[in-house]
């Protein structure tokens, strides 16, 4: 019997034979007591009695697939004689059970550096039916195009694999619905929530906005030379950056706002670092090559650099210097008028007009 057989259905069982006559012949049938089946006895015009098995309640193959009953035929003699027959009922499957997913919501967390082709996760549904009624086919629905390019679902196994490059900075979260359909057309659905986890795969980048370049050498300390913006596309500690300058130069960085620094001229004593910083002096260095370095808080940390060449403009901060502090000249009294008595030489470390020396 198929398990979808409605209650009230009848199944003829044939009839027994008894060569005796009268009350000694077959008089009735009895059935093993059970809650699912009953027995109806019909009598033909010729007096032959026939037994019919009646289904009283719904069958359920998933609860019990086999039923064993005993049909007994009795006569009316003294003593009563009887015969028995076994009734073996095999309940065949009907597609009366939909698939059931192991989870209503699959919550998945994937690192963004998961290689393409890797198994991301698996969805699984079970079906209590058998045969084709229990064969489940999986498919994705309610999923955006971006997710379709990144994930594929094996319709038979439920394996979801990565088929595109995951990038936390491009997409942090994906959502989809997975459908499981059995061979009889019944289906079930489950939600899939995918969180992409950040890894430290981006180095900080620096962008420079020059404010004052070249810089006069007599510029006062704390003057802003440039503004530096530091950006890191990662999240959390992977995106937290700090910025420094390589070397002991007459400049320092001062935080301005989030991820923004001001490059300023340092004072003679950099009070933050408590180290002497060189004053701007064109005569010592006509330009400075700055290497700005930004590091994030990842493990291991990533670093980005930027270079800035700062030229120093001359200021008239140097007086002329004679080659000798004192000149002593001995002159004969008969020296002719117009004779050169001594040559005085002075130099100036400045450049341009600031370095031109005139004698008075």
TrEMBL record:
GO terms for biological process: homophilic cell adhesion via plasma membrane adhesion molecules. Gene3D superfamilies: Cadherins. It holds the Pfam family Cadherin. Residues 3-101, 102-206, 215-322, 323-359 form the Cadherin domain. Keywords: Calcium, Cell adhesion, Glycoprotein, Membrane, Repeat, Transmembrane, Transmembrane helix. It is found in: Membrane. Residues 1-23 are annotated as: Disordered. GO terms for molecular function: calcium ion binding. One of its GO terms (cellular component) is plasma membrane. This is PCDGH protein. It comes from Nyctibius bracteatus.
